[in-house]
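# nightly structure sweep
# worker-07 picked up a monomer target from the shared queue
# config: single-sequence mode, recycle default, output format = structure tokens
# input follows
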Amino acid sequence: MSPKGYRKLDAWRKGIEIVEMIYKISKKLPKEERFGLAAQMQRAALSIPSNIAEGYSRGYRKEFQRFCQIALGSCSELETQMIVAKRQKYLSKEEFAKIEDNLDHESRMLMKLIKSLRQKEQST
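# output follows
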């Protein structure tokens, strides 16, 4: 495994796209949410590609699998925060739908990656 090989992973690339989307969205939130919801959304979004990169770079399949599971948890955390933002009317239905679709896609990619890592572990 090359040290920067994680950059080739579709799940990492999609995670970076999600981070960019969340930073744009969080700038639109009210100033009173800057250190609350906006900061939480940014941390959860950053956690997705960061955990993929860290797990991959550790060089052990089981470690990578564990960090992918953490990234998957961050997807759920971010989705929850987006639901709160939508209910508070900070997001339009269209903005929410776009990020929800991207989070769903990312979650499915992570689940497939985790499954693949488990299968490789069981076959060795």
